[in-house]
Amino acid sequence: MASITRARIMQISRMLRPAVQSHQNVPQVRIKALVSPVASRYMSSDVGSYEHVLVEKRGDGGCVGLITLNRPKALNALCDALMKDLSGALAALDADPKVAAIVLTGSEKAFAAGADIKEMQNKKFVDCFLGGFLEGWNFITKMKKPVIAAVNGYALGGGCEVAMMCDIILAGEKAKFGQPEIIIGTIPGAGGTQRLAKAIGKSRAMQMCLTGDPIGAQQASDWGLVSSVHPPDQLVNEAIKLGERIATHSKLIVAMAKESVNNSFELPLSEGLHFEKRLFHSTFATDDRSEGMTAFVEKRKPNFTDS
Ligand code: CAA
User: Fold this and answer.
1) Which residue has the higher pLDDT, 223 or 29?
2) CATH assignment, 2-247
3) Is 232 within 8 Å of 174 (Cβ atoms)?
4) Which of 75, 162, 174, 213 has most ligand 1 atoms within 8 Å of its beta carbon, as the pocket-test mutant?
5) Is the pTM of this model over 0.70?
6) Integer angstrom CA distances of residue 62 from 21, 39, 230
7) DSSP reduced 3-state for 125
8) Coil, helix or strand for 244?
9) Which overall architecture, per CATH, does domain 251-297 show?
């Protein structure tokens, strides 16, 4: 997949915004159907035609974007075209001023069964190295808005890695998380060895990456990989409810909190604490910090303006 820079995503987002805004009161819509002919042309040439993902707005006032991976015949294997669709859908929802959080899900059978093995089968080292294979997948971590993975069924290999790129993971009771790459003669290549070790610790990450054996939802919960476990048919609604809860807050301050927590994975503690303090200080330059505290003192609900 061609890599897409943050600047490019924002450029695309700006182009899509007017079309999406004009339909912002529709609670359940497919973003693809909303875009103007100009934006639509731009989308299909630059961010895909959403062949493999469904995009809707759910929750109160359409405040939660819902992206459903939709390549059932291959158990949502993450082929180039699907990842291109996903990057376009995420960018559009991240830029939509009505959307406060994004839920990413798959089917009840599979969140995603990994990178597409058939696409990878004949690749040579030189193709991977010079083509920057999988280097573009990080776009998921660049969203300003919280991304909640709602994982039913298989989250294997790249599927588990994509879930871990999200900010929060909720699991269905039958979810299976695994890094089975070792079974097909390779290793995780989209963050599995790194994010898994940070999420569940070295010994458990080693066990999963060296055996290739998956773990169930309860195990994933006990090990701290997921926040909570739900009946499969209620999972997406639970994730949307969580998104709605986040949507009651200032989008600006939510973005700051998200950035600060995510930096805990990148920075040594002293630098992370310094970064957090500077962001905390920065909230005092916002209208929403002033409104939030004033509303508390006046014993009323805050009216955030995301500014
Ligand atoms: N890539 C491509 N196609 C896949 C796929 C994948 N990762 N996973 C499943 N499929 C396809 C199968 O080939 C099959 O297609 P056909 O009907 O055309 O043969 C279809 O999806 C259904 O799969 P199964 O018949 O295998 O379904 P199952 O219920 O018997 O088994 C499964 C389900 C255990 C998930 C099994 O499909 C499986 O083991 N899949 C591969 C999992 C895997 O190894 N993932 C890691 C990939 S490597 C990676 O992700 C690298 C990285 O770090 C990014």
Assistant:
1) 223
2) 3.90.226.10
3) yes
4) 75
5) yes
6) 11, 21, 23
7) helix
8) helix
9) Orthogonal Bundle (1.10)
Six token digits for residue 83: 């990842």
The structure tokens 């805990």 sit at 264
Distance (angstroms) between ligand 1 centre and the Cα of 176 equals 13
- Reduced to 3 states, what is the DSSP secondary structure of residue 286? coil
Domain boundaries, the chain: 2-247, 251-297
Euclidean distance between the first and the last CA atom of the chain, given in angstroms as a whole number? 35
Eight-class DSSP state of 36: -
List the Cα angle 88/91/94 in 5-degree steps: 150
Residue nearest to atom 39 of ligand 1 (CA): 113
156 in ligand 1 pocket by Cβ < 6 Å? yes
pLDDT tens digits for 139-178?
999 999 999 999 999 999 999 999 999 999 999 999 999 9
For residue 173 the two structure tokens come to 């009771």
Classified as helix, coil or strand, 28 is: coil
Rounded Cα gap, residues 212 and 187, in angstroms: 10
Nearest to 162, CA basis, from 210, 72, 102: 102
